[in-house]
Each structure stands twice: as structure tokens, then as C-alpha cells.
Amino acid sequence: MKFTCALLLAGSATAFTSINKSTQRTQTVQLSEKKDGDMSQALPFAQRPKILDGTMAGDVGFDPFGLAGDDKAKLMYMREAEIKHSRLAMLAAAGWPISELWDKQIADAVGLPSLLTNAGDAPSLLNGGLDKISAAYWVAIVSLAGIIELENMKMKEEKGKAYIAGDCNFDPLNLLPQDKEGQMQMMTKEIKHGRIAMMAILGFAIQEALYRTPVVAETPFFFHPLF
Fold it and tell me: How far does the signal peptide extend, from start to end residue (predicted)?
């Protein structure tokens, strides 16, 4: 968690650095020549990429590395990938600390060995411990992912241009509103939570690799009752 917090604070520290007057005047002139509609919502001092027109949920004109490409097809491909990674990250961001809190107790209760590392960390590429997990589990996970992907490809072909990136036709709790405005709000919430989850799971992995301490022990106030 210390490492994660440092990542978040590093960017804000630059806000207090001084700027020489000539540079400041140049930037002021450049910004005054641009229309407000052409500026990035995420980076108000920078011009937004042309392909990001604000019509997609969560689009704030942020693509400093140009990953979205220059055409709509590439943009939709990257949006699909972002949503899938976001959903996996949200599950992982919840599952990681839950496993560190309760894996041993559940394993003892059902008479199975705990899969946590000797330090109590969740198994991962950096922490190790993945060799403890049964090969049957990996086969089942990969097979399930393949089935879902194939069904998604079929649905994409059937819907054609009406297909919405990330639509798996799965909403058992009816969380998606029926009206367009409500749908946009819900999709925006999903992508925002997913982006935060991707940063969180990255922070979990790096933090535990550096400090060799479970995140639930490093920051107990997030994962244990205060009373």
C-alpha cells in the first residue's frame, strides 16, 4: 500500500514546481488558440485525441500513448479489451485480499491445504505459489474463458453495428437501466471502477513483491474491523 500511495502522490507533487515566465507565456498563447471542445477533460492543458469524441462511457480524452489508434475499429477493439481487463481486475482486487484473510480458515475447515505462500501472500507470478494450484483448475478456467469468448464473438457478428463493446448479454441482477441516460451512467461507473481496480491489483502485486508482506497486514485498517 505504501508503494501504491507513492504512485498516486508522485504525479501531484509536480503541481508545486515553478514554471519560468517565458514558458508560461508560451503555454498561455497556445492554449488560447485552441477551442475548449478540443481540449482533453482529463488533461485540460493538452489537446484531446480526435478519435475520442466523448460519446463513449468514461471517455475523458485521455490517451497519451495513442493506444486507441486513429480509426473507430481500433478504438472499439481497445475499448473491448479495457472492459474485459477492468472486469477481471475488479474480481481480482476483491479476491486477492479475501484469499489472504480467509483462505487458511476455509482450507482447514474442508481439510485442504492452504494455497497462500509461507509469508501469507496470495499466489502470483511475483509472489510464487502458482505451482500449488491444480492443473485441473487452469484447464477449467481457460476452457470457460474460451467458451465465453466464442459466445461473445457470435453475438458480435449477430448484432453488427448495434453491438456495444463489453456486452456479454449477462445481467442477472438487472443492474443496467432501461433508459439510454441511465445505461450511460452505469457503463461509466463500471469503467471507472475497473480502471481503479487495474491500478489497485498492480499495486498489490508490486507491493507484496517488494515488502514480502500481505496487503491485509500492511494496511490492516482497510481489511480488519477497527473495534
Answer: 1-15
Contact 70, 178 (CB under 8 A): no
52 in a labelled binding site: no
Question: Cell 486507441 sits at which residue?
Answer: 68
pLDDT in tens, 15-74: 333 334 443 444 333 333 344 568 888 888 888 888 898 889 999 899 888 888 888 889
* Cell representation of residue 15: 503541481
- Residue 170, judged by CB atoms within 10 A of its CB (0-12, 13-18, 19+), counts as exposed
> Is 27 annotated for ligand binding?
no
d(CA 40, CA 136): 47
Indicate yes or no: pTM above 0.85. no
In CATH terms, is domain 67-223 a member of 1.25.40.10?
A: no
The model's pLDDT over 112-169, given as tens digits with 9 standing for 90+, comes to 999 999 889 999 999 998 999 999 999 999 999 999 999 999 999 998 888 888 888 8
